[in-house]
Amino acid sequence: MNSNLPKSAAAWRPRYHYTPQCNWMNDPNGLVYFDGEYHLYYQYNPHGSDWGHISWGHAVSTDLASWQELPVAIPATERAMAFSGSVVVDHGNCGGFAPPDASAPALVAFFTGFDPDTKIQSQHLAYSLDRGRSYTPYAGNPIIDIGSTEFRDPKVFWHAPTRHWVMLVVVALEQQVWFYTSANLIDWTRVSTFGPAGSADKNIWEVPELFELPIDGDSTKKRWVLIVSVNHGSLWGGSGVQYFIGDFDGKHFKADASDGQLTLWADHGRDFYAPITFANLPDERVLWLGWASNWAYARELPTEPWRGQQSGVRELGLAATSQGLRLRQRMAREMLALVEPEPLLKLRGLPACQAGEALSQASLVGRQLMARLVVSTRGLIDPIGLEFFKGGDDSVRIGFDPSLNGFFIDRRCRAPLFEGQSERHDARRLLDAPDIELEVWIDGSLLELLADGGTVALTDLVYADPQATSVCLFHGGEAAMVQSLDLHQVRAAMYSSNEES
Ligand code: FRU
After folding, report:
1. What is the sign, positive or negative, of the torsion defined by CA atoms of 90, 91, 94, 97?
2. Does the annotation count 401 as an active-site position?
3. Rounded to two decimals, what is the model's pTM?
4. Cα separation, 178 vs 287, whole angstroms
């Protein structure tokens, strides 16, 4: 390990992605919009920066960009840690948790209660009548218990066409999602099973999610997407997010035949896991975010006093590509609102070497940046892209490699702080358009690449020298053309406090 590097650097803390002020955080939980607020709950250890005492931490936002940290919403008890799950707004008071004279509906949380003694995982319910600040455990918990030690992460939603509630839970070691339905949120009937499918490795399945998405923005053409987070044997080892496209009739999910054999990954970096969508949004969008980390090394990340960060909020769609239907992820417009409108640099139609020269003359630096680079495929021979955190021992390259016809994040470094840090991750291009588009979001130690209109996503953590902040262009042969480059500062959005004013 490079002895010059600090054990943890303030420069590594993301400023527009959510991190708790201190302590451990993993999966997002119970994302929900209610009464003017977006709620972000998450797996949280109130007592330290390692996994343990797992509770639901809590933050709220009114703009989906800046978050205020609030006290723990669902604390671990001696008998049950609060593992991952979801929240619904019970508009029809199906569960009867809101008193008859209540002016607002109850928020109902579903989570896995993990008994630290027996190791049994069972599904629990808790409800909130104070705008998601605190939750009262249902007296009849657990609501589903099959006596298993690997049965978790309930996702509940209202299926309007069949007028019932649906719950997905994973039976992790069997690589299965079990589907349940209910009329009252309390009594659940098992109706179907999906899996094993997709990635053949010895994965365990976690955090299921299911939603409907329009194809190429056409809301008359929709398909269902089943998400399963898988751990141990994903794309680069460790954790990753698999998805299946198909149909859902309120009880059964059926993957499209052509995709049944294929493993589709939502993100080709190493640091995007357990994503879930926001419930009860005021518009038609499907928005999600994921834990930007990987179980392979999450416990070793060199940050303190916090450990764990969430990805940006991404809007989802399906894109018809030459390879078939694929998930499309674009940063939500609320994230774009954080981008300084005046660019640090704007270039148009230049040979790559001139663009590179212009960039180096501008002497740009930064750790909170958003860049859009559009490059022509014509005459492109060598890799081209942007290099960040230059100036120290290592930097990170984000670009396109014509020999692979793919995008990459190259975070290789000389003195890795943990195993798996020094790697390059790549993803094949899915579009044939003559121009290649890279949108890059840099935030301290968190990098998100959403390329070709979001048809390719790569999320990676990078712990570069805190002093190294320069930005450069590396380019691809004499004939390479930069169609456009826009580089912007992104405003720090985070504000964190445990008190509500
Ligand atoms: C996924 C996961 C879930 C579990 C939670 C525990 O990262 O392992 O399956 O509920 O984290 O913190």
Report:
1. positive
2. no
3. 0.97
4. 24
